[in-house]
Amino acid sequence: xxxxxxxxxxxxxxxxxxxxxxxxxxxxxxxxxxxxxxxxxxxxxxxxxxxxxxxxxxxxxxxxxxxxxxxxxxxxxxxxxxxxxxxxxxxxxxxxxxxxxxxxxxxxxxxxxxxxxxxxxxxxxxxxxxxxxxxxxxxxxxxxxxxxxxxxxxxxxxxxxxxxxxxxxxxxxxxxxxxxxxxxxxxxxxxxx
Length: 193
Ligand SMILES: Cc1cc2nc3c(=O)[nH]c(=O)nc-3n(C[C@H](O)[C@H](O)[C@H](O)COP(=O)(O)O)c2cc1C
Known about the structure:
- Belongs to the SsuE family.
- The chain is 45% helix and 20% strand.
- The strands form 2 sheets. Strands 1, 2, 3, 4, 5 and 6 form a 6-stranded parallel sheet that branches. A two-stranded antiparallel ribbon has the order 7-8.
- It has helices spanning 15-29, 44-48, 55-66, 83-90, 116-127, 155-188; strands at 2-7, 33-37, 69-75, 101-108, 132-133, 137-140, 144-146, 151-153.
- The protein binds flavin mononucleotide (FMN).
- Flavin mononucleotide is lined by residues 9, 11, 14-17, 75-79, 107-110, 113, 141.
């Protein structure tokens, strides 16, 4: 299984990216291969100008194509997803998320924007033909303590993230066995004309 994570915050010390780090560690612990992307992995000029053929963008497109699923984190900025996340998603093809399972994560300062994942991120992912978008996790800032070199998540948040990771793995496994079953059916009952 191969998973791509995508951090939508422009900051290097970031609350939303700490959610992603926690989820990545959980996936690693299950021996799942994870490739992480954030703004610093791209040539920023190429990203801003939508240079689809730049090597840093090509590498990202190839990794997404290879991935079974993506974990995407965004801070809530101005009641929506971050601009950084949107420009990164914009360099992917229109159908780039077809056949992918997506686990969305967000952090925000106010519960008023608890539904930002639903009204701002999910429509974009659907437009990119994501096969299955899980309900995701929204974290409030006070659940994520930023220390000098470290970010600490509170227990309730960890519990919700653990549940979301379990659900993500479950859906990925179901899809894999359904794909295998379809393949077996085709092998056992070849259609002849
Ligand atoms: C430019 C900007 C706009 C923000 N707008 C909102 C907002 O509309 N709603 C909200 O709940 N939080 C808002 N916040 C707070 C962030 O969503 C919150 O602090 C988040 O955890 C930051 O994540 P990051 O550290 O990964 O960037 C805003 C923060 C910034 C810097």
